[in-house]
Specification:
Elements (H helix, E strand, L loop, with lengths): L1 E2 L6 E2 L2 E2 L3 E5 L2 E6 L5 E2 L2 E6 L4 H19 L3 E5 L18 H18 L3 E7 L1 H10 L5 E7 L5 H19 L12 E2 L2 E2 L2 H8 L13 E6 L4 H12 L3 E6 L3 H5 L9 H17 L15 E4 L3 E8 L5 E8 L7 E5 L12 H11 L4 E5 L22 H14 L5 E6 L1 H12 L3 E7 L12 H7 L4 H8 L2 H8 L5 H18 L2 H6 L1 H20 L3 E6 L4 H9 L12 E6 L9 H16 L6
Parallel strand pairs: 7-8, 7-9, 9-10, 10-13, 13-14, 18-19, 18-20, 20-21, 21-22, 22-23
Antiparallel strand pairs: 1-6, 2-3, 4-5, 5-8, 11-12, 15-16, 16-17, 17-19
Helix pairs in contact: 1-8, 2-3, 4-5, 10-11, 15-18
Organism: Ciceribacter thiooxidans
Pfam families: Abhydrolase_6 (PF12697)
GO molecular function: hydrolase activity
């Protein structure tokens, strides 16, 4: 290790987000070493794919921050056609396209950090890609394999089962489910990629990938133990550790629990490996970071750090042609990364640019790639401090001379978009999709709601008539007691609608009523257009009906508010017609405003 002349990871005690950089049709996030000493080793994160990648995003960032504090630089990135990377229409090169991205990322890591050795940390499908790419890399000192894939065919079968479980959980109608291919959480794997994955098995591994290896094993997966044994047979020095908390991490980005024991095991192993390596023979001279810019057919995207100390990460998407209307600020949902569920944030931003509308998508503090603010609670959803992050994003838009702003989001993002418009006059339009509430009672337990949020009564009635529901009951895959409790709650809310005036008079509801009515009056007085879009049978309709009635008659006093029901849509707007309706509404609200010079 060498001495660090001046730390660069934080300013004024506020941790910085990783620095974006562009290469090979993608955006990477480089986290420089920020310890008292700097190791001659960098860590390259090679991600899994699909829903697993979305759930892992925050975990990768936490480990990268830990390593930075110990003097170890790192880089994480998206494969072409995924995340914030550019789209591709041609995947005829198969998995080699993603292999090439790993090699390019390793070269960028070496150039940015000055290190001559790297450790690759890979999870799930990322282990397959890492094993293929390592053969083309020099200076690989170690491999961390978390939940490794040992059979490509078995992995793809597991993805298909997992996809069905996700579709059932979201209540996606059968006509909107993928009929073929590997599609999970709205993300489709190119068939050429899947074809190469099918060819992989442990038998194809003929050389040790690295001299030192750490294998994080799931206790119920014998293949993980076989993977470790194979590395030992090939001559690698292997340490095995239990991957406790894996299932809780990868089930859902909104409720993902960070596996602290696995985090510690990975960080300690890499730190020990780095300390045992010889020092760098010459003083590294890290490359100067250039703006992280990607160019598409009708857009220019730039990865940004902003906010105090560069604490937030986002992507500004601007049209290449004439700018029209307001800039759209896309506010993320729950703990999904800014790219969005099924890359909805990326697709929406680029479609808006095609119509001349700029946008900024970003991660709020402690979500995905933006680190937490010291002193703030770990659970940030529905916390008033998130409005500070929105204000910081609006500051960026103002600095780029792209005012005014229209905020938009789904679920918790819709709530934040709505509430932020009350606090910032630069926000002159709101498009809220499936907001659960318009005011959050701070006494309410967010974690409890995230795990056990009930559906609407109409949704339960529809599901009871489905044959697949009876099949799940017979297989013991439905928690009958919890379902009965939630149905009871939904029935109670339905009955409460018919006694709205009396319900609003109850002490516990007076604050809610006052806050909601006051918020809508404020935006009405300012003339801020508000578009409310709800999926048919969305659970947020219960709260809406409690405030404005089932027929939305309570909205008639607000001429600035438009209310739309999206038929056949699930909470995540999976069906294409629902997404198009959202896009058209957002475009109309944005283009109705005049851009400020």
């Amino acid at each position: 290790m060498r001495q660090q002349a001046s730390p660069s990871g934080a300013l004024g005690g506020v941790p910085s987000a990783a620095r974006p950089l562009a290469f090979s049709e993608t955006i990477g996030l480089f986290m420089p070493a920020n310890g008292k000493t700097v190791a001659d080793v960098g860590v390259l994160f090679v991600s899994p794919w699909g829903l697993e990648e979305m759930c892992l995003r925050k975990f990768w960032r936490i480990i990268a921050d830990d390593l930075s504090a110990r003097g170890i630089a790192s880089l994480r990135f998206d494969y072409p056609g995924t995340g914030d990377a550019l789209d591709r229409s041609d995947f005829s090169g198969g998995l080699a396209i993603w292999d090439d991205a790993v090699v390019a990322a390793a070269n960028r890591l070496a150039a940015m950090s000055g290190c001559s050795r790297i450790v690759i940390a890979a999870q799930g499908l990322g282990t397959v890609i890492a094993l293929r790419a390592i053969r083309r890399l020099d200076g690989v000192a170690g491999l961390v394999a978390l939940a490794p894939v040992t059979s490509g065919r078995a992995y793809l079968r597991e993805m298909q089962i997992w996809a069905k479980m996700v579709e059932e959980g979201l209540g996606i109608a059968k006509e909107h489910r993928a009929a073929e291919g590997i599609v999970i959480a709205g993300l489709a794997m190119p068939e050429e990629i899947a074809a190469d994955i099918r060819k992989f098995s442990l038998a194809t591994l003929e050389e040790k990938p690295a001299p030192q290896c750490l294998v994080m094993k799931r206790p119920d997966r014998p293949g993980d133990t076989e993977f470790a044994a194979k590395l030992v047979a090939l001559g690698a020095a292997v340490i095995e550790a239990d991957y406790k908390g894996y299932d809780d991490l990868v089930s859902n980005p909104a409720t993902a629990v960070m596996p602290q024991a696995a985090r510690s095991a990975v960080v300690e192993w890499i730190t020990k490996l780095a300390a045992a390596l010889p020092p760098c023979p010459t003083e590294p001279r890290p490359e100067t970071i250039q703006p992280a810019v990607l160019h598409g057919p009708n857009f220019r995207e730039e990865g940004l750090n902003f906010g105090e100390g560069g604490r937030l990460y986002g992507v500004l998407c601007e049209p290449l042609g004439e700018r029209k209307g307001a800039t759209v600020l896309l506010v993320g949902t729950a703990y999904d990364r800014a790219a969005g569920w099924a890359r909805s944030g990326v697709r929406l931003a680029r479609d808006l640019a095609a119509r001349g509308i700029p946008s900024l998508r970003f991660d709020t503090a402690n979500v995905a790639d933006s680190p937490p603010v010291p002193g703030m609670p770990d659970q940030v959803l529905y916390h008033e401090a998130q409005s500070n992050d929105v204000s910081a994003a609006v500051d960026v838009i103002e600095e780029r001379h792209l005012l005014p702003v229209v905020t938009s989001g789904r679920c918790s993002g819709a709530y934040l978009a709505f509430r932020s418009a009350l606090q910032d006059a630069r926000i002159q339009g709101v498009v809220a999709v499936n907001p659960f509430v318009f005011y959050w009672d701070p006494k309410r337990d967010i974690d409890e709601w995230l795990r056990f949020v009930p559906r609407t009564l109409g949704d339960y009635k529809g599901r009871l008539l489905q044959a697949e529901t009876f099949q799940r009951l017979l297989q013991g895959r439905i928690d009958i007691a919890r379902a009965a409790t939630n149905i009871g709650r939904a029935l109670g809310r339905r009955l409460a609608r018919h006694a709205m005036p009396l319900i609003h008079m109850l002490p516990q509801n007076r604050v809610m009523r006052r806050e909601v009515v006051g918020a809508f009056h404020t935006l009405s007085n300012r003339g801020v257009p508000v578009a409310l879009l709800y999926s048919e049978n969305d659970v947020g309709l219960d709260h809406f009906a409690e405030q404005f009635g089932s027929s939305a008659r309570g909205l008639r006093r607000y001429k600035n508010v438009d209310f739309t029901i999206l038929e056949g849509a699930d909470h995540n707007l999976t069906p294409e017609p629902a997404r198009l309706s959202y896009f058209d509404t957002l475009s109309a609200v944005a283009t109705a405003l005049d851009p400020q010079p």
